[in-house]
Amino acid sequence: MVVGAGVVGASVAYHAARAGAAVTLLDAGRPGEGVTVNSFAWIASSVHSGSAAELRATATDEYRRLEAELPGLPVTWSGSLSWRTGEDAPEAKPGQKIVDGAAAATFEPNLRQPPEWAIWAPDEGAVDPVGVTERLIAGAREHGTQVHPDVPVTAIRRDAAGRIVGVEMAAGPLDGATVVLAAGAATATLAAPLGVRVPVDPSPATLFRFRAPAGLVRTVVNTENFDLRQVAPDRLIAAADEPERTLSAIRSTFRGSESVELLSARVGPRPMPADGEPIVGPVADTPGLYLAVMHAAITLAPGVGRLIAKELVDGTDEPALADCRLDRF
């Protein structure tokens, strides 16, 4: 049983069902319409630090694999371009190149003033987060997964020996030998009555949507002012802090942006573990309970879902998840 049908829960359900497990996927709302819908959805695979470094490094490969398995997966391989004004160029990490202003202008031809240097990550991209979630769930259904939207889970059930035996819902109990909590920040709330402390809290993230000319932005652009990308011929989205400042920064950065107009601002409570790294794995003192909660869920979901399925279905201990366990706290 997977509790939470965001992108992480959908990935776990798909990969576990594909590996032969009998899977039930539950969500308090509609799949992908919680935290996932407000994600900037950048596949940032070139961030190589922390316990999830290996998982991030393979994110592009995992999405390529998933594209082959699930035709029509809504992924855009645009590359990403990052820079900071007034700073020296850093060393390139694997998957990155340091380019000059002339090269940056070939990737983003509408730049008013190309930066002295930029980090070009050609293999990175972005996704339609709800579309990816829906495609994963469709794939899970094809492998027999039972999907129950709009069904809030109120408690996790245990037997007298302390082993997980299912969940409690408003309509009554539902039996399951293993429960995967992939419910974002609500994971901590559901685990607490079991005596399991999951150090994850909601962290507000603001996503702005703008009306914009077609082709204004070509890549995923990351600066000190915003993360920015074009999601439709007449739409931009930005992850940033303040709408008017962001709008001003877009207009000062790109030629032809005078007509850019703010359409909406939404704040999403993304789940943030205490150390910023994923919490993934079984809970030793609560047999049958498995945790899957993380930041950078869009980047990590395909790979983490595949590895979780291997642990649950094949009984393996995956080395890439070794530093993500709850017992590190």
Spatial extent as radius of gyration: 21 Å
Number of strands: 20
Mean pLDDT: 95
Unreliable stretches, pLDDT < 50, 5 or more residues?
none
Strand content: 25-35%
CATH topology title of the largest domain: FAD/NAD(P)-binding domain
CATH superfamily of the largest domain: FAD/NAD(P)-binding domain
Features:
6-stranded mixed beta sheet, 2 domains, 29% strand, single chain, alpha+beta
Q: How would you summarize this macromolecular structure in one to three sentences?
A:
This protein is α+β, with helices and mostly antiparallel strands and 329 residues long.
Tell me what you see in this structure.
InterPro entries: FAD-dep_OxRdtase, FAD/NAD-bd_sf. This protein is of the alpha+beta class. It is 26% helix and 29% strand. The chain contains eight helices and 20 strands. It has an eight-stranded mixed sheet. Strands 9-2-1-13-20-19 form a six-stranded mixed sheet. Helix 1 runs parallel beside helix 8 and helix 3 packs across helix 8.
Blueprint (SSEs and pairs):
Layout: E1 2-3, H1 7-18, E2 24-26, E3 42-43, H2 53-57, H3 59-69, E4 75-76, E5 80-82, E6 97-100, H4 101-107, E7 117-121, E8 125-127, H5 129-142, E9 146-148, E10 153-158, E11 164-169, E12 172-175, E13 179-181, H6 186-191, E14 200-211, E15 220-222, E16 227-232, E17 235-239, H7 243-253, E18 261-273, E19 279-282, E20 289-293, H8 297-314
Parallel strand pairs: 1-2, 1-13, 2-9, 5-15, 13-20
Antiparallel strand pairs: 3-8, 4-8, 5-7, 6-7, 10-11, 11-12, 14-17, 14-18, 15-16, 16-17, 19-20
Helix pairs in contact: 1-5, 1-8, 3-8
